[in-house]
Every structure is written in structure tokens, then in C-alpha cells.
Amino acid sequence: MSPPARKRVLSGMQPSGLLHLGNLLGALDNWKALQEKYECFFFVADWHAISTNYADTSRIKEFTRELLIDWLAAGIDPQRAAVFIQSRNPDHAILHLLLSMIVPVPWLERNPTYKEKQEEIKDRDLSTYGFLGYPVLQAADILLYKPDYVPVGKDQLPHLELTRELARRFNSLYRPVFPEPREHLTQFPKVLGTDGRKMSKSYGNTINLSDAEPVVRQKLKTMVTDPARVKRTDPGNPDVCPVYDFHKIFSPAAVIERVNRECRTAEIGCIDCKKLVADAMVERLTPIWDERNKLTAKPDRVEEIVREGGKRAAAVSHGTLEEVKAAMNI
């Protein structure tokens, strides 16, 4: 008897900037674990990046290349996961077009991200069809591969529910083609930036995976700490200190305990505390930097991985699209 087929996982990421620690801890570490158990498809969502950056697309190719290098350096294994670029597979655009014919406009207008992003990004006009309809493209990205699971955080559940609603609508209008993907809920660790806010490209407060060691150490030196601790002799409160949050992620238990204790009694100052966390962070990032250097020196290898991953992805998406066309009699 042949072994049962592994369940399938699909996820993607926009090349809208350089990847940072939040992406590593919130997504890539999770993907790395999933690829050991599931059949995984991970894609660069470069068409999605155009939805908010349509006026300046000059760096999308650069960010795509850097993103792929970061994925591979962080441990995404092309032997275990198909790694590919969305725009190289026209099936995504075709299914997006077909699904856009059946999606009611109110389903898109109720998308919570639609209004939130318009409020958050004031320097760009997001009153475009592409931005309103990007959840349909997202649904096409998912449904093409009929995944069992899609890794998401709780804030992304409305997007996945729209995908399921579109699958049900298509299956009801024509005939059953799409299974409804389930969420693989991921507990994203709280990753703060150097200014104490959520680490985000838009805030300019990131520590990037491509930053060299001196850059990482310098960024940590400028990181905000307990605002009430003005002088070196003032006792601090690690519970409100972003640097201590990094300790909880990167430092060994003994260092975490020491910092928690000595900060409260002013035995350790912020400079020494930051150096300890910098040492731990550098130790975690060094293997990634080493792999990045190797991959950067071999662009042909990265292209080969993407090409092979694209073939594996297309073999699945072509089959799904043929089912869709047959169901719709087109």
C-alpha cells in the first residue's frame, strides 16, 4: 500500500520591503516547522505588492529577490516546499478574473482591512479596483492549490472566510470543485521595533534579516527602554521595556532571569542590558547571515529553485483551472 498523501499547506508573502525579525518570528519559523509535516507551497505575492505600490513598482523585483534569499537562508527547504513567484503563473490571474465575476461587491466592502489600510496609508490613493478586489486575488491564490490549511493569525481570519465563501458560491453556482481551506492558527510573538511600536516597514523601526552585525548592534543601542528610567541609578521595570521583550525571545533563561532581577534594582544599566540581548540576537542570526552570503553569491541557484518550485506549483494549479473551466463550461 502506498503511504497516505500528506495534507497541504499554502502561504505567501508580499515583496513590499526587506524582511525583518517580525517576519522571521511570525511567519518563517512557522513555515520551517510546517514543511516537516505537510506538503507546502510558499509563494512571493508580487502582484499583491502592486495593490498599494502601483505608483512606484521600481523595487518589487529587488524585494522579490531579497525575500527569496531570506526565506531560503532562514531554513525554507526547496526539497520539502515548492517556492515560487505568483506573477510567473498566469493561472492566478485567470482564476482571479473568473472569481471576480461571481463575488458580490458588498463582500469586498465589508473587508475590515479595506478601510483600515485606507486610514493607515494616507500618502497613496487606495480607491482603486485592484485594492478593493485584492481579496479575490488572494482567494484565487489559495483555491488554485486546494490546501487543507492556510497559516494565519486571528486578524487574517476574515480574509480566509471570504475565500471559503467564494468556494461555496462557486460550488453552488456550478459544481463542487473547491474544498474549503481551514485556518492553521499561528500565535505570532509580540515583536516590537526599535521605537517601541510594532515592528513594521512603514514605521522604519525594523531590524532586517539582511542587516549586517554592526548595523544590528547599532540599532539596538538606540532602542527605547523603560521611559520612567531616566538615570542609570533609577530602578527599571522590564515589563514595559521593549528590550526585555527581545530578551524573552532570544536570550537563555539565566540571562532573562538576571535582567529581570537586576533591572528592577538598578544593578544593570540599559547599555549593558542591550549588549546582552545583542549578543543573543547575533548568535541567532549568524547562521542566516552565512546562508544569505552564499545565496547572494549564487543568483543562478536561487533562480533554479524558483523555476523548479514554479513547475511543481503549476502542475497543481493547471489541474485545478481545468476543473474550473469544465465546471463553468468555458
What can you see in these coordinates?
This protein is mainly alpha-helical and 330 residues long. It has two domains: 8-191 and 299-328, Rossmann fold, CATH 3.40.50.620; 211-292, Tyrosyl-Transfer RNA Synthetase, CATH 1.10.240. The protein has helices spanning 21-34, 46-53, 60-73, 91-100, 105-109, 112-120, 129-132, 134-143, 157-173, 213-221, 242-250, 253-264, 270-296, 299-328, and strands at 8-13, 39-44, 81-85, 149-152, 182-185. Strands 1-2-3 form a three-stranded parallel β-sheet. A two-stranded parallel ribbon has the order 4-5. Strand 1 (8-13), helix 1 and strand 2 (39-44) form a beta-alpha-beta unit. The protein starts with 7 loop residues before the first strand and ends with a helix.
| Gyration radius, rounded | 22 Å
CATH architecture of the largest domain: 3-Layer(aba) Sandwich
**What average pLDDT do the residues reach?**
94
The main pleated sheet reads as: 3 strands, parallel
Beta-sheet strand percentage? 5-15%
* Uncertain stretches: none
Q: Which CATH C-level class of the largest domain is it?
A: Alpha Beta
Q: How many β-strand runs? A: 5
CATH topology name of the largest domain, in short, is: Rossmann fold
Sheet/helix structural class: mainly alpha
Strand order of the largest sheet: 1-2-3
CATH superfamily of the largest domain: HUPs
The residue fraction in helices comes out at: 40-55%
What is the CA–CA distance across the termini? 38 Å
